[in-house]
Amino acid sequence: MEKLILHEDPISGNCYKIRLVAAHLGLPLERRAYDIRKGETRTPEFLAGVSANGRIPVLQVGDRFLAESGAACWYLAEGSPLIPADRFERADMLHWMFFEQYHHEPNVATLRFWLGIIGEGGLSDAQRAAVPGRRAAGEAALALMDAHLAGHDFFVGGGPSLADIALYAYTHVADEGGFALEHYPHLGRWLGRMAALPGHIPMEE
Amino acid sequence: MEKLILHEDPISGNCYKIRLVAAHLGLPLERRAYDIRKGETRTPEFLAGVSANGRIPVLQVGDRFLAESGAACWYLAEGSPLIPADRFERADMLHWMFFEQYHHEPNVATLRFWLGIIGEGGLSDAQRAAVPGRRAAGEAALALMDAHLAGHDFFVGGGPSLADIALYAYTHVADEGGFALEHYPHLGRWLGRMAALPGHIPMEE
């Protein structure tokens, strides 16, 4: 595989997903850090040279650039056990990855960023007004995951896949956004299973 | 392939994506309609029997159910020319599909639903307050697509892929949400190329 460079902000769970996939697969990953709170991904250099969308993560593969965490995880994991061999299960894994980006991350990750990282005093009026809606949608996403995990050890098939890694990243720090994980016992046990996997790495390192 | 049933609302662009993929590939698709404006996807029957997330589209494959439009499109298109054969291009296609669900659909599709379907008078205060932010983010997504298409006939590789189909669905009706597509000339020509493909079907039929 060509040289891999992760353009990231270490506080981002979306970036952590890619580091977690690389760790599970034993792939070497060079890291370049940007501080999103200082606008370091909106500079002309970043927009022209890394990603026109001005956001991290971006996985650099040789001299090509891949934005969106799910796409980068897929690129790294193709041909590995992290992507199920069965056609329906493979699509079902993508279902959970799209679920994460549409129903989970904009709520669970955003409230962590707003309340746990920026802090309530630093929010705009529009952000403050959006908190209750994001809270309700985030709780709904966590409840749906918990109900699924009542009958399954992992999200798809019999072992961990990219779906679990994508959902682990922001769920395991959901308390930083004010979500009470003790309300979701099956989710809690799944978080434990994920952290106990060989190859697992913590978010901060 | 097992019998395919699309659980859908005909006004939804996310459902149209799946019908468009099936049309391009000549796959028969039975259709079951639900009216999301009447809450028909939040009934106990739908939640227990079709999708616990209470949303359409859901692709039924035999007796299994697949939510999230991108996952359903992937399931149908595996092994076809709508998914690039090259590993990097395949991941880059997923990048555009995740971009669509995160940066495009919540803005371009939501404003079409709020302003073009519900109508401004029917919006809640929270929805009304969210319009300017969604407008700006939707214009940014369209501008990014337009810039990419300045140098490419299709989003990835040399021909149409699931990335084009995913992005076509809500872009071609963006004017219904008040977006002025004449500001994006490359986008306009790409919409024309997509509609001229053999196998293309319109959204309403």
From TrEMBL, chains A, B:
InterPro entries in the record: Glutathione-S-Trfase_C-like, Glutathione_S-Trfase, Glutathione_S-Trfase_N, GST_C
Annotated GST N-terminal domain residues: 2-84
Extent of the signal sequence: none
UniProt-listed Pfam families: GST_C, GST_N_2
Domain GST C-terminal: 86-205
CDD domains xref list: GST_N_4 (cd03056)
The name this protein goes by in its record: Glutathione S-transferase family protein
Classification of source organism: Bacteria, Pseudomonadati, Pseudomonadota, Alphaproteobacteria, Sphingomonadales
